[in-house]
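Usage

Read records sequentially. Each one opens with the input sequence:
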Amino acid sequence: MRGWICVTIIRKTTRKITWLQIVIHILGWLPLAWIIFDYFSNRLSINPIQDIEQRLGDIAAYFLIASLVCTPINTLTGWREPIKRRRALGLYCFMYACLHVLTFIGVDYGFNWQLIGGIVLQKLYAIVGVATFILLLPLAVTSSRWWMKKLGRNWHNLHRLVYLAAVLDILHFAWAKKGNLFSLSGDVLRPFILGVFLLFLLVVRIPPLRRKASELRQRWTSRLRQRFSHRVG
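and closes with the structure output:
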């Protein structure tokens, strides 16, 4: 009896684990492992602290964008699995954002709050970075189903802040690398690409366009099914 119960539990657990989950969790920890490996093998740049700090921030930005990709994928393809993985992507974004901030305030500036305060007040990239982190904090805290039920409709209103956080993060990304997205000067290639991609993701979310895309997908799916059924018949 006990053996049957154990087998049942294992089967139920196995069914819940998908290949996409496995890929996301591998990609979630791989960058951190890579940074640690580079650190201990002396493969970082001349300024290792800045290198680690920037890499952690870049990874956080990538995961933030990845979390916003899930809904358009569902809209354009009808595949629901990515919707279920937004939370994991968002939490990995927050984890790397926390490591990025801790490296900045703890390792780079040794928790010297007076010096940190001066930089935050004087540097535009730091102001935008702090604002981005403040926006991400309540989103990470309230990401569980318990908070979703507790907040009700307000949960969706709160989590719309992710769009503003993404825009600010792209600006922080560009300005931290001493680039200017508006004049396209400096090291702005990756921030510019991410910015264009983010614009596409936001446009796809506009309700009329989203409905139109969903209708086109359903129409094409119906046609493909009809053609396939005729060929089989």
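Summary fields computed downstream for this record:
- Residues 3-10 have pLDDT under 50 and may be disordered.
- Residues 18-41+48-220 form one domain.
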